[in-house]
Specification:
The complex is a heterodimer. Chain A is of the alpha/beta class. Chain A folds into 2 domains: 269 residues, no CATH class; 52 residues, no CATH class. The radius of gyration of chain A is 21 Å and the shape is globular. By secondary structure, chain B is α/β, with parallel strands linked by helices. Chain B has one domain. Chain B has a 10-stranded mixed sheet, with helices on one face. At the A-B interface, strand 18 and strand 19 of A face strand 23 and strand 24 of B. Strand 19 of chain A pairs antiparallel with strand 24 of chain B. Chain B: Belongs to the iron-sulfur cluster assembly SufBD family. Chain B: This is Fe-S cluster assembly protein SufB.
Chain lengths: 438, 490
């Protein structure tokens, strides 16, 4: 039973409300109205707590103790020294430090024909026409992380891929936090992929180890008819940091979208993905893997809305939990009445290595069409003793045997990344995690 | 079965008015004044001749209830219930019967019509129960009208009686166990039930006794504007075994009637309880008018080591079902099972499932749920499987399948799987589909018409669960399934 009594505002909520008093006026009346509405929604609803169904397992009201001051621009040399993720993948690199694009470190020269990249600040100042798409993807419900991002983010990357453009080289947006004081950074990006285009987008997150900063990132993806988009994400924020990210997708007819999120860092991480399958016959795959240890908490939440007939969706999430880490998977597939012939499969698997680890799975199906094939599965358990025995009988040490099996376990999800350079980089990160495991 | 046009038409013209238990027995009854207040609670308690402690227990529940709010998280929608517009107690006016021959013949006739033999002689002849002996406790509105085979059971040491009688005759047992599984403050409807429950069955199976026959309760709502609030308490002492069946029907009416029951099961060490339900309350007509609101709290506590509780349910009736039979696996090596078939048609709404709470070591549970949605109904499976930090070696297997018949209905799955223990092993799988064209084609090729083919496939779909039902019930349930889906699959 929900008590509708408005709880006392936490220090974090009060702090955030203070920050929401002075909103940026950039971007014209529509953007200003969006910011104002988002700020108002936050003031009305505050941070989600465990009685809010979508945040049941990630009680942000408790987990976010304070509102940190907004991050200030970082020193270029420091950022350069700090960045370390996905450096040699061959991707075009754009660095966003403390929520603002650093042109000095970004490779914005010689853009391929059909590819346009602006900073959000430039776009808000009136450059380009893509801005009209910003903030148009709506999850249809109040989402505190997204509302704060909408209200407070002033920079990020705006990418447009023209109709039919085949961009072989991925664009990698590296989010780096730099500084000595914990601060909160907000970044908002928009990726528009024109009809028939092919594009690979990568995102990474990192920051100084031991620093308790906060990152709130949101990216909107507008995918045109018959377009092909690959998204690869790597999150290795500091183990004391709070990481919130929101991904919004609108997918056109016969498009192919594949997204993979790899989470290794952050003390508390929550990634929410909203996808609208608005065009017929599209194929989507949303996959992810998390490697967690210590007292890390990672939440992957997914809302998939099948609105039209004939789409296929596949989700595969793998979570490895060591020590007393906590993993959360919530996935919801909605199949509207019109969405006949939908084929949806969702799977969440967790491997529990630590005695005090916890895994919470909530795969949901909500189906209103009859001619569909939908299923979900969820498993959770320790490493299979038979498999361990098999390896050990061949002279492999317990630790190595475990590493091999964990690698194979997350490997299944990482394998789905199409781009060779990015996939190999992710495999290397997984290996590094295993090697560091005592 | 969307592939075949005739079936689509039939789904559209679906006729849920085929409810054959919709008759009303015209007998004089005695009711509590309409509405709910402390006086109502006192009235019920006085009617039942209850001791002071019971009245206090009820009043406490009632006070608590007044501070609670109706839950709204389930995937069901219904007009607000006016709790002051109900009768909370209704009993046939004739004095309590001492022997079966003193029961109002009208009531006897009612049960005969429902196929429930109250005369032991008839039952022994196997008139309606297919030759097997089943002891029946018949609950008519708010009171138990007859309990059969009492003597034979008491020879085995089994106590089987209306709970109101047990409160007077076995207060020590009732005091010890009542509210120990479903606390008074558990949830809105359970608290309401604790305040105003009028009757239900009480079963106590002593140590090491295997109950010599199946026990069963048959619930009948008859009176207009009444709510039925029954309370069932079953205790299987160490090493005991009991199988219990429950059936329910109600007259066909345009208004909604409330049924808020609480069932508590306690299994001590090595004990086993098997609880089967065939729920066939009036589901409302095809436009969703009338029908029973079935808001039930059922929970079993595997309190002792190696104990086992098994729930089997066939849910075909009720306008709204809100029901989650659960198992608390407290004892080491205890087992919980949940087998369910939930069929919704017309405008029925079902939100049902189970909770398996693993607390002891090496506990295991199994959930098999089959939902079939037809017409304009909504069918939701909602379940929780959780393993406590200390529940080493916990195992769960869950399988929820949904079948959709027609494109105006919905099937939903909302499982919560929470594991706090590394050695716990949980598996969950769910699928939703329509009857596959391949299966249909295969059957039709062999000369079955589409309706027969569909019926055959549906029966195969629910087979896992039907097998868990006691023989007599399985036959009834199978018939019920075909009646429920009549007009949509045949």
């Amino acid at each position: 039973m929900n008590a509708e009594i408005r709880p006392i505002r936490t220090p974090a909520e009060q702090g955030l409300s203070g920050e929401l008093k002075a909103l940026s006026r950039a971007g014209g009346p529509r953007i200003v109205a969006l910011r104002t509405a988002a700020a108002q929604a936050f003031n009305d609803n505050g941070l989600p707590h465990r009685r809010v169904e979508e945040w049941k397992y990630t009680d942000l009201r408790t987990l976010m103790r304070e509102a940190l001051p907004l991050a200030t621009p970082a020193a270029v040399a420091q950022v350069e020294a700090h960045q370390g993720l996905l450096l040699d993948t061959g991707a075009r690199r754009i660095v966003v430090a403390n929520g603002a694009v650093v042109p000095e470190l970004s490779d914005l020269a010689d853009l391929e024909p059909g590819l346009s990249i602006l900073t959000l600040a430039q776009a808000l100042a009136g450059a380009g026409e893509t801005l009209a798409r910003l903030g148009t993807l709506e999850p249809g419900r109040y989402d505190a992380a997204l509302a704060l991002n909408t209200a407070l983010a002033t920079d990020g990357v705006v990418i447009e891929v023209g109709e039919g453009a085949q961009i072989a080289r991925p664009v990698h947006v590296a989010h780096v936090v730099s500084g000595h004081r914990p601060a909160a950074s907000f970044a908002r990006s928009l990726v528009v992929v024109g009809a028939g285009a092919h594009f690979t987008y990568a995102e990474s997150f990192e920051g100084p180890a031991g620093l308790g900063y906060q990152v709130n990132s949101a990216t909107e993806f507008v995918v045109g008819d018959e377009a092909h988009l690959d998204v690869v994400r790597l999150q290795e924020d500091s183990a004391s940091a709070l990481h919130l990210s929101t991904l919004l997708f609108e997918i056109g007819r016969a498009a192919k979208v594949h997204a993979f999120s790899f989470g290794i860092g952050a003390g508390v991480a929550r990634t929410t993905l909203y996808a609208n399958l608005a065009g017929e016959d599209s194929q989507v795959g949303f996959n992810g893997a998390s490697l967690l240890k210590g007292r890390q908490h990672a939440d992957a939440t997914l809302f998939l809305d099948h609105q039209v007939p004939g789409c296929e969706s596949r989700e595969l999430f793998k979570t490895v939990l060591d020590d007393s880490a906590r993993g959360v998977f919530q996935g919801k597939i909605v199949v509207r009445q019109a969405a006949q012939k939908t084929d949806g499969r969702m799977m969440s698997r967790a491997l529990v290595l630590g005695d005090d680890a916890e895994m919470d799975n909530k795969p949901e199906l909500e189906i209103f069409a009859d001619d569909v094939q939908c299923g979900h599965g969820a498993t959770c358990g320790a490493i299979d003793d038979d498999l361990l025995f098999y390896l050990r009988a061949r002279g492999i040490s317990l630790k190595d045997a475990q590493s091999l099996l964990v690698q194979a376990f997350v490997g299944e999800a990482i394998e789905t990344v199409e781009h060779d350079g990015l996939r190999e980089a992710l495999v290397a990160r997984a290996e590094a995690w295993l090697a560091a495991r005592g | 079965m969307p592939a075949v046009q005739e079936t689509v038409d039939q789904v559209r013209s679906i006729d849920v008015d085929q409810y054959k238990y919709g008759f009303f027995t015209d007998i004089e009854s005695e009711k509590a004044p309409k509405g709910l207040s402390e006086d109502t609670v006192r009235f019920i308690s006085a009617k039942k001749d209850e001791p002071e402690w019971m009245l206090e227990w009820r009043l406490e529940a009632f006070r608590r209830w007044q501070t609670m709010r109706e839950p709204d998280w389930a995937r069901v929608s219904y007009p607000a219930i006016d709790y002051q517009d109900l009768y909370y107690y209704s009993a046939p006016k004739k004095k309590a019967a001492v022997s079966i021959d003193e029961i109002d013949p009208e009531i006897l006739a009612t049960y005969e019509k429902l196929g429930i033999p109250l005369r032991e002689r008839d039952a022994l002849l196997g008139i309606a129960s297919g030759g097997t002996k089943v002891a029946v406790d018949a609950v008519f509105d708010s009171v138990s009208v007859a309990t059969t085979f009492k003597e034979e059971l008491s020879r085995a040491g089994v106590i089987f009686m209306p709970i109101s009688e047990a409160i007077r005759e076995h207060p020590e047992l009732v005091k010890k166990y009542l509210g120990s599984v479903v606390p008074v403050t558990d949830n809105y409807f359970a608290t309401l039930n604790s305040a105003v429950f009028s009757d239900g069955s009480f079963v106590y199976v002593p140590k090491g006794v295997r109950c010599p026959m199946e026990l069963s309760t048959y619930f009948r709502i008859n009176e207009r504007n009444t709510g039925q609030f029954e309370r069932t308490l079953i205790i299987a002492d160490e090493g005991a075994y009991v199988s219990y069946l429950e059936g329910c029907t109600a007259p066909q009416r345009d208004e909604n009637q409330l049924h808020a029951a609480v069932v508590e099961l306690v299994a001590l060490a090595d004990a086993e309880i098997k609880y089967s339900t065939v729920q066939n309350w009036y589901p409302g007509d095809k436009d969703g008018k009338g029908g029973i609101f079935n808001f039930v709290t059922k929970r079993g506590d595997c309190r002792g080591d190696r104990s086992k509780i098994s729930w089997t349910q066939v849910e075909t009736g009720s306008a709204i079902t809100w029901k989650y039979p659960s198992c608390i696996l407290r004892g080491d090596n205890s087992q919980g099972e949940f087998y369910s078939i939930a069929i919704s048609n017309g405008r029925q709404q079902v939100d049902s499932g189970t909770k398996m709470i693993h607390l002891g070591k090496n506990t295991s549970s199994r959930i098999i749920s089959k939902g079939i949605a037809a017409g304009r109904s909504d069918n939701t499976y909602r379940g929780l499987v959780s393993a406590h930090r200390k529940a080493t070696g916990a195992r769960n297997f869950t399988n929820c399948d949904s079948l959709l018949i027609g494109d105006k209905c919905g099937a939903h799955t909302v499982p919560y799987i929470e594991s706090k223990n590394s050695s716990a092993q949980f598996e969950h799988e769910a699928t939703t589909s329509k009857i596959s064209d391949d299966q249909l084609f295969y059957c039709r090729q062999r000369g079955l018409d589409p309706e027969e083919a569909t019926a055959l496939i549906v029966n195969g779909f629910v087979k896992d669960v039907l097998q868990q039902l006691p023989m007599e019930f399985a036959v009834e349930a199978q018939k019920l399934i075909s009646v429920s889906l009549e007009g949509s699959v045949g």
